[in-house]
Amino acid sequence: MKTFFCLLGLILIIEGLPYFAFPDKMKKWVLTIQNIPENSLRIVGLMAMIIGILITYLCKK
Fold first, then answer.
1. Distance, CA of 60 to chain centre
2. 37: which DSSP letter?
3. Is pLDDT of 26 > 80?
4. pTM to 2 decimals?
């Protein structure tokens, strides 16, 4: 459980960093995402999850 919370903390740091460092660019980026088709976003999200699972698996090995 300790590892889970450490990973969750790292994810929050990585997710929050662009909003802290470049808030104006993040606003523009969020508006740009609205124009991307949902299927494309789903594919990118699925790929990110698969890569994350592979990285986690390889690091735990």
1. 20
2. -
3. yes
4. 0.68
